[in-house]
Write a structure and sequence with these properties.
This protein is an alpha/beta fold and 237 residues long. Helices cover 31% and strands 17% of the residues. The strands form two sheets. A seven-stranded parallel β-sheet has the order 1-10-9-6-2-3-5, covered by helices on one side. Strands 4-8-7 form a three-stranded antiparallel β-sheet, covered by helices on one side. The structure holds fructose -6-phosphate (F6R).
Length: 237
């Protein structure tokens, strides 16, 4: 594990964008795993800026997002498809058909999860996975549990995740209670992973995840076993 201490949020975002940019330059047809939430917004903004200036070419890149709320239409302004289109995909030269976000309106959710997992495997897996971390240690929407999940599946969101994400909705009651998420196994199979986390509020859970016992009660703790993990944070750990 490599830990990079960033000066602040912008510095963290720039370092993450530089690593992703380098990956795209090295392997133009790479497969990126992407996260949503507040943390990656600065990273996406830098990638979009560099693409608009002609420094980066997303024409052959494929992406898979970690998760999507169950029940939200892709057009819903809080769906992760909408977030990705507005924060990144609509601002870069990626082919929209090469961008994948689980379908939150799938009729057969198990089939959707299996198809998502198979599509990732069919492309020889994820080259580089970008991750954020929840206050409870979740990655993707893999909440604290009795065991580590393997592949893409449907989850019930933890109460503290619903509370944390209520800031994006008109009221807490509007936050979906379930989601589709890549499994811990899917994430761990990525060839490289970058974990970004900023702010004092993430310091304790980062320390617990990176230096504490490896346990499904702290899902991100499994990242200690990832063969190529880079953590970028403005926190002193
Ligand atoms: C979302 C995701 C989540 C977030 C986490 C942190 O796609 O993967 O694990 O990374 O909830 O969210 P923020 O960045 O809003 O603190």
């Amino acid at each position: 594990m490599k830990i990079i201490k960033a000066k602040d949020y912008d510095d963290m975002s720039k370092i993450a964008a530089q690593i992703i940019g380098a990956q795209i330059t090295l392997k133009p047809d790479c497969v990126l795993g992407l996260a949503t939430g507040s943390t990656p917004i600065g990273t996406y903004s830098m990638l979009a800026d560099w693409c608009s200036k002609g420094y980066l070419d997303f024409a052959s890149v494929t992406t898979f997002n970690l998760d999507e709320y169950l029940g939200l239409d892709p057009q819903h302004d809080q769906s992760y498809r909408h977030y990705m289109n507005s924060n990144l995909f609509n601002k870069i030269n990626i082919k929209i058909e090469n961008t994948n976000v689980p379908n939150g309106k799938a009729v057969d959710v198990d089939k959707e999860c299996m198809a998502y997992e198979n599509k990732i495997e069919g492309l020889d897996g994820i080259t580089l996975q970008l991750l954020g971390i929840g206050n409870n240690g979740h990655i993707g929407f893999n909440e604290p549990d009795d065991s580590f999940s393997k592949s893409t599946h449907c989850v019930r969101l933890a109460d503290n995740t619903i509370e944390a994400n209520a800031r994006f909705f008109d009221s807490i009651d509007m936050v979906p209670k379930k989601a589709i998420t890549m499994g811990i196994g899917t994430i761990m199979k990525a060839k490289k992973a970058i974990l970004i986390a900023n702010g004092e509020g993430k310091r304790e859970i980062l320390k617990k995840s990176l230096f504490g016992p490896i346990t499904p009660r702290v899902p991100a703790s499994i990242l200690q076993l990832h063969p190529d993990l880079t953590v970028i944070t403005d926190n002193s750990l």
